User: Fold this.
Amino acid sequence: MQEVAEMTPYQLLGGDAVLRQLVDRFYDIMYSDPRASGIRAMHAGDSTVIRDKFFDFLSGWLGGPQRFIEKYGHPMLRARHMPFAIGEDERDQWLMCMFQAMEEIPMEAALRDHLEDAFFRTADFMRNK
Assistant:
């Protein structure tokens, strides 16, 4: 058995099944919570494709299979998000959806703290206005 210290966030989270739950819950919240209207407006009405892309991205970002890179190449997050006006409000709406989704997924407190910090830094890096 692999030691916990050697496990990736992807493994600590629970792999594909739990990651899919997190991604689906994130988009369910974004598409239903009025507080996320700013970022919801940036997305298509059908979230099927973006859910799969986000799942693929997070898989690799968390240390699991590099599905996104295999399918689409380097994520180039800033470049891919540049067409959208992202300020503090949009960052905070995104984080609200992600943190709420994370609250509904059982995980160790240390992993939650690590992911909240990593998601904040990444979301803040996407700001372009």
User: Anything to note?
Assistant: Residues 9-125 form a domain with the Globin-like fold (CATH 1.10.490.10). Helices lie at 9-13, 15-32, 37-40, 48-61, 67-72, 77-81, 88-103, 109-125. The mean pLDDT is 94. Residues 49 and 84 are 18 Å apart (CA to CA).
